[in-house]
Amino acid sequence: MESYRKNFSNQLTGLEFSNASFFKNLSISQIQITNKFLYSNFSSQPCQGGLLDSTLGANKKNICKSCKKNQSYCSGHFGYIKLFLPVLNIGYLKAIQLILSMICKSCSRVLVHPGKRRNYFFKVIRKIKKKGEGQKLDYLSEISQECRQIDYCPFCWSKNGSIRKFGTLGFVHDFKFQKNKKNFQNFNCSASLVFTEKILDPLGIFKIFQKISREDWELLDFDSIETHPTHLILYYLPVPPLGVRPTVFISETMTNEDDLTMKLTEIQFLNIQLKINFQTGIPFLAIKDTWSILQIECGKYLNSEAFNLESGKQKFKSLFNRLKGKNGRFRGNLSGKRVNFSGRTVISPDPNLPLNFLGLPIILATKLTFPERVNKFNIERLQRTVLRGATRFPGANFLIDLKNNKKHIENLSKKKEHLEIKSGYKIERHLKNNDIILFNRQPSLHRISIMAHRTKIISGKTLKINECICKPYNADFDGDEMNIHIPQTQKARAESISLLNLVKNINSPGTGESMIAATQDFLSASFVLTSKNQFFSHDQIGKILHLLELGNIEKENFIPALLKPFQMWTGKQIFSLIVFSKKKKDKNKKKNFQGSIFHLMEKNYSLGKKQCSPFLCPFDGWILFKNRNLLAGQLGKSSLGFGNKFSIFSSFSIFNSNNFILNCLLKISKMTSSWFSDFGFSFGIESITPDKNQLKKKKIFLKKKIFF
Asked: Which of 12, 227, 494, 536 is most buried as measured by Cβ atoms within 10 A of its Cβ?
């Protein structure tokens, strides 16, 4: 077994995607669609050779003829429609136009001169195939630009011009030449400029692509084994299985068919009509009209967005529309799925909420549950939740007994059954305070787009978070919605709070920059509070401490800056006291923090490092911290905001825990909502209207300027 694995690993070199060839489409198909009718006129059974043939899969009434399985086990089988005339694949129109502009329309050779230039392009494409696909677009743009500059084919000397789109699905070859040119000296005609154009239909393009030599396949970046330029044109139209386009049975005789089935019916009808018209000898113009309609219907079947549909008509859901977008197969069914025990609603800010907590509305807390097993430590608490029922908070919704029988508590209370619980039961209780919850905002671009929070039950209908944690989620409050997920086992809760805890993800895992920091009004409040002209009396300090609910903090060495006529403290002292203070019981912890010195240039308009001392800046542009006291500088975005590895909190994290940093940010946010909301000024029209003396000075000043 080990030797087989070694050989297999040596053989597997990569994974390559390419357009399917005619032979691959035929090999995966089980049946050719030859009938244009869906059901027989004499019975309700599907027609043999039709689009609902049982060979393509099973339905509710019939089993599959290919695998002999019913609808539960048969995934379906492909079929194909052989088109009487080829049509262009709407997904490869740009590729077809690019190839036509690079090759001669007569001999199908690539328009590159033989010799050095041709050998140069061969070397470039071979190097790209060895190294990787990174430079392939540059190569294609270079060779296509050179081919467009060549007017005459270097192999057959036929004239080649530009290729432009004609209508929705067609191309026109435009070229011009002079009759008196050297190449036309043998013709007896007057010198003049001739403009000609030739419409290239799908059959003509198919014949041109058929003549491309194997040598030129490499220049056009085609694999000589798997792919061919003719595969860009549809000759065999794949028909998806019945499971992709299921039939809805309204009654025994009435059904509702899928959009794809009805569109394939139209294509098959036009295909048969085109064959009949050709065999009966109808003029080519009538055949051309039917051919163009078939081309349009095949394009709508693949991608209906490329066609301008009328506003009144219902939009047709093509194959392309079923794969792309948020509700498509990849994003809607494969990448993202609906999950249980989750919720989604609008977010709103709450500056008084701790940063690692999430405000959960009581409406969601009663719907989302956590299964908790009953033991001797929690049996009394869980018994009370069961007695409250599903409608009263904090209650419980379901009870799971020892035999794994799940019972709804509301139904048991209506039947007046005894609701006594025992050890070993599982109670799906309501979420309560301090429960662990996962919080996520889409798109999840990095690891910290989903983190674990503690819950705090609140009133209202929106999820509430502190504004400082918006950066990791890239969230704002203009109507953003976020998701919550409830871990359903104790192991999942432990992993969430240990690995995805917000406390442990303050810094970015990629760059190391602080992702959780002060923002918006928090920075404004810190900037104003730490300015030179902010002074506070003893009563004002007590009011701020009361609003912030900070009573038991260190006040040692809290000496006023002004002694007379009143004792006044500066805003820098208040900021140091409130934000970076610790409780008395933490006095002996982290002694290294006491002697730490931190300085940072906050403002760009300071005199700089050469002319301005970091310890005494006249513009207050240098931040200086010593022993947890702010001695100089106005705090702003560089010192407290996002995206700086050398901010105050990043430096203080060396001597303190992450919980201390989160508490500092919480104090700043509380201070913003309490003190800074009352800070402001107002003015009226009289304050900005100049008086008589100011108007006189203005006139005198203007006269002097005019005179000089």
From this structure: 536
Give the model confidence (pLDDT) of 331-361 as tens digits. Answer: 888 877 778 899 999 999 999 899 999 999 9
The residue with tokens 């260190």 is 554
Binning pLDDT at 50, 70 and 90, where does residue 522 land?
confident
9-18, 156-165, 216-225, 387-396: range with lowest mean pLDDT: 9-18
- Identify which of 334, 326, 271 has the alpha carbon closest to the alpha carbon of residue 297: 271
Query: Of 412, 499, 500, which is closest to residue 451 (Cα–Cα)?
Result: 500
Structure confidence at residue 636 as a pLDDT band (50, 70, 90): confident
Q: How far apart are CA 116 and CA 65, in angstroms?
A: 59
| Identity of the residue numbered 199 | I
3-state secondary structure labels for all residues of 413-479: HHCCCCCCCCCCCEEEEECCCCCEEEEECCCCCCHHHEEEEEEEEECCCCEEECHHHHHHHCCCCCC
pLDDT in tens, 99-129: 999 999 889 999 998 888 888 888 888 888 7
Mean pLDDT of 653-680: 80
Mean of the per-residue pLDDT values for the chain? Answer: 83
User: Residue 692 gets which letter from DSSP?
Assistant: H
* CB contact at 8 A, 506 and 653: yes
Here the tokens at position 688 are 């900005």
What is the token pair recorded at 386? 């069961």
Would you give the distance in Å from CA 429 to the centre of its chain? Answer: 34
The whole-number pLDDT of residue 497 equals: 92
Fold of the domain built from segment(s) 342-504: Barwin-like endoglucanases (2.40.40)
Domain boundaries of the chain, sorted by first residue: 22-111+150-268, 342-504, 521-676
Q: Is 349 helix (H, G, I), strand (E, B) or coil?
A: strand
Peptide bond into 690 cis (omega under 30): no
Cβ–Cβ under 8 Å, residues 649 and 668: no
What element of type H or E holds 599?
strand 597-601
Measured distance CA(293)–CA(133) in Å, rounded: 38
CB contact set of 122 (below 8 Å; sequence gap of 6+): 218, 219
- What six digits make up the tokens of 105? 């329309």
Upper half-sphere CA count for residue 56 (Cβ side, 13 Å) = 27
Find, among 584, 582, 585, the residue nearest to 593 by Cα. Answer: 582
Cα(472)–Cα(444) distance, integer angstroms:
10
**CATH superfamily assigned to domain 521-676:** RNA polymerase Rpb1, domain 3 (1.10.274.100)
Closest-CA residue to 107 (of 33, 45, 157, 150): 157
pLDDT digits 0-9 by tens, 19-42: 777 778 788 899 999 998 888 877
What residues contact residue 507 under an 8 Å CB cut-off, 6+ apart? 513, 514, 515, 650
Task: For residue range 219-240, list pLDDT tens digits in order.
Answer: 888 876 778 888 889 999 999 9
The single residue listed with the structure tokens 């070229």 is 175
* Cβ atoms within 10 Å, residue 374: 20
Would you say 54 and 41 are in contact if contact means Cβ atoms under 8 Å apart? Answer: no
**C-alpha to C-alpha distance for 633 and 67, rounded to whole angstroms:** 80
